[in-house]
Specification:
By secondary structure, this protein is of the alpha/beta class. The chain has helices at residues 6-21, 45-53, 71-84, 110-113, 161-166, 169-172, 187-191, 201-222, 240-250, 261-264, 271-281; strands at 30-34, 61-65, 91-97, 119-125, 134-142, 150-151, 198-199, 232-235, 290-297, 301-308. Strands 2-1-3-4 form a four-stranded mixed sheet, with helices on both faces. A four-stranded mixed sheet has the order 5-10-9-8, sandwiched between helices. The protein is globular and about 60 Å long.
């Protein structure tokens, strides 16, 4: 039994962010909601969050994005463009996940289930008149070649299309003679416990430890800085070994990297905002610090952001 949903957790995080920004909830003029575990298949959580917050202003828009582990960075980049163009002044950006509603808690699923946790984090993105402050740059990338290496395949509207095209019928519980487009979920999927996430951990690890440093260095190069300029790195909390590997490759000491995966597990889109908030509250991020956010995850998608606090 759950006492929370993705949206109710997001509501609590949003109220905290709105208070920290010193604004009223009615001042929010756009919502960006990143999650892979929405309350409903549709509509998305953005409008549900608007309702839960009691925002009555119907002039605002609500955008739902599906970029899994890199969702918060993708959302940050979107918010940054809206604010820099002057379109919006108070963008509420949320990353929230209720993983526990869709995980396999049997022995079969333990390799995936043990990694993930529930949580929510939020931020309000606003313009600044201070030169060289705020979001300096964001870098976004994707490669769908190996999408099924980390995926929640079914139920879905694909009807076995990708499974047949890639020769993965057996892995995902599709009969070879099925008619494409007719299947949302089969009895075999349910009997075999295949309505859960799939992950090839070693494959994901090898890609992550390559893409993390690449996308961080890409951002640093754009603003003519090197890794020693980073005061705090907030990596997506996927795996502590990945974070440690990336920190070593970037030449960053342990006190310049913030990790909390040991407390919450991988909260996907929520992991960076939760970690960012905790690092700030603990005094590990100070005025003028260069903060780097970085993520890699399902899709595959990855990205980075540099922020002058």
């Amino acid at each position: 039994k759950h006492d929370e949903t993705t949206t109710t957790m997001a509501t609590k995080a949003s109220l905290k962010a709105i208070a920290a920004a010193g604004i009223d909830k009615e001042d929010i003029d756009f919502i960006i909601f990143a999650t892979l575990s929405p309350d409903y298949y549709f509509p998305g959580c953005g409008v549900l969050l608007q309702r839960e917050l009691g925002i009555t202003n119907t002039e605002i828009g609500a955008l739902d994005i599906r970029n899994q582990c890199s969702g918060f960075i993708y959302g940050l980049s979107i918010a940054d463009q809206f604010v820099k163009t002057g379109m919006y002044k108070n963008v509420l950006l949320v990353g929230a996940e209720m993983h526990s509603m869709g995980l396999d808690f049997s022995t079969k699923g333990r390799n995936v289930t043990v990694i993930f946790g529930d949580g929510a984090g939020a931020a309000v993105i606003q313009p600044t008149a201070e030169k060289d402050k705020g979001i300096l740059t964001t870098k976004l990338h994707s490669d769908g070649t190996y999408a099924e290496k980390l995926a929640f395949i079914s139920p879905g509207s694909h009807g076995g299309y990708h499974a047949k095209k890639l020769g993965l019928e057996d892995r995902f519980g599709f009969d070879k003679d099925i008619e494409l487009g007719e299947i949302f979920a089969t009895q075999k999927m349910m009997d075999d416990g295949q309505l859960y996430p799939e992950m090839e951990g070693q494959f994901v690890f090898k890609l992550a430890v390559t893409k993390f440093p690449e996308v961080i260095n890409e951002a640093l190069t754009e603003v003519n800085l090197k890794s020693d300029a980073i005061d705090m790195l907030i990596p997506h909390q996927a795996n502590l070994r990945i974070s440690q590997f990336v920190a070593k490759r970037m030449g960053l000491s342990n006190d310049k990297v913030f990790n909390n995966i040991q407390k919450y597990g991988n909260t996907t889109a929520a992991s960076i905002p939760i970690a960012l908030c905790e690092a700030w509250e603990a005094g590990k991020i100070k005025e003028g610090d260069l903060v780097c956010l970085a993520a890699f995850g399902s899709g595959f998608t990855w990205g980075s952001a540099l922020i002058r606090w």
